[in-house]
Q: What sequence folds into this?
């Protein structure tokens, strides 16, 4: 039992400190799920786009290449990066801010379960996107806990 708990904590610490979020203040901070992820220690907020780790997987809704289980090794070594912004400006922000420093991936068709965009395809909250990415890459236990 102790070994299982220790291995779980070790794996979780690797995943938790490898999720980086650049947050643009475009919504209500009390409802923002990126802030909640950070507050509970599941992710790290960074101050600018240059602070996101180079070579990490960037969740980007504008690219055609989907996130796949084979991306797990990259996420473990380089991390998972996100830009937390308004969906109304997401296409503009991702095309303007993201260049060749990242491995850009999109999530597959997922239906939002958040109260703001409930039932709408692709329009996920940050916490839904992180949980989906973790699940797709094989971190199923961590996805349920986030």
A:
């Amino acid at each position: 039992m102790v070994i299982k708990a220790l291995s779980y904590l070790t794996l979780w610490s690797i995943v938790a400190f490898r999720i980086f979020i650049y947050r643009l203040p475009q919504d209500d901070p009390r409802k923002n799920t990126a802030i909640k992820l950070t507050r509970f220690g599941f992710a790290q907020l960074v101050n600018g786009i240059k602070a996101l780790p180079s070579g990490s997987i960037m969740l980007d809704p504008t690219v055609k290449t989907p996130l796949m289980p084979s991306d797990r090794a990259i996420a473990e070594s380089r991390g998972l990066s996100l830009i937390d912004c308004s969906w109304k400006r997401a296409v503009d922000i991702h095309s303007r801010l993201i260049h060749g420093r990242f491995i850009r991936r999109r999530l597959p068709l997922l239906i939002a379960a958040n109260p703001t965009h409930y039932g709408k395809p692709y329009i996920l909250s940050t916490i839904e996107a992180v949980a989906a990415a973790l699940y797709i890459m094989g971190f199923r236990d961590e996805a349920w806990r986030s």
Summary: The chain has a mean pLDDT of 79. DSSP finds six helices and five strands in the chain. The longest strand covers residues 19-23. Residues 2-16 form the longest helix (15 residues).
